[in-house]
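Changelog note: in this version the structure field was regenerated for every chain. One regenerated record is shown below for reference.
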Amino acid sequence: MTKLKLLAAGATEGPVTALLPEFTRLSGHEVDVEFSTVGALKDRFVGGEKTDAIALSTVVLDALEKEGRLIPGSRVEFGRA
């Protein structure tokens, strides 16, 4: 089983926590998730912290994309909070 790392904004905690067991069951991938503020997670990511996925606000993701910090075409909207 692969273990994935997810950094996620606190506003997503309820839905992400509810969906993780089903995701793990269907995919076979365990997820280590850390919830915090959008600003704190952005700073950690920009500072070099490695993650498999990051769930932040559209505004912050737009900025990260413009800065070339995201792989072009890798962004997927999976929900709104």
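Spot check on this record: The chain has a mean pLDDT of 93. Residues 13-27 form the longest helix (15 residues).
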